[in-house]
């Protein structure tokens, strides 16, 4: 998994998620098979279960939304433990939880086995619009720069005895945010001028030409192909 070309993994992840969302929600067993397939991928990629579960916490807001659906949805209702729940809401909650969890797990596995720079090369190889790839590249490259600037500003405030303790200190924090925006904007202008002076004309040069063999494509597409078989069985059974 770690050695596969990035564009093959991106294509496999996209196709797998597409198959998952195309599966009928009534085929509950199919989502269990999808989970087993992802667990197999995580095992062979040597991604620890704890790491995967911690990253899945990002979907907590969607879980909260799914929990509310049986209570607010309309239609036929059933009584469970003294609670009146909507049948459509229960199916909708299951649909959101199952497909959302599998999608997030797929993204986590992709990120755990592929470096950010490789992801950008994969997107470029898959012919994503160059402007979008460049925007993503700059966001990744200068995210750390902005974070470091925020850290220096925090240290400067603390060295002068400032400590945010309530609403009355929000004004200082707002001024710091404004100063950070101005500094970031000015830094962006300087970087753009430096790039133009070095011949930048709207496109970035391709340094690493990433290619994939037929065997690598077959290895990467094994997951979505297996999921497609499960999806078709889910529609037929």
From TrEMBL:
It is a multi-pass membrane protein. NCBIfam families: ECF_T_CbiQ (TIGR02454). The chain crosses the membrane at residues 32-49, 56-73. Its main location: membrane. CDD domains: EcfT. It is found in: Cell membrane. PANTHER family: SLL0384 PROTEIN. This is Cobalt ECF transporter T component CbiQ. Keywords: Cell membrane, Membrane, Transmembrane, Transmembrane helix.
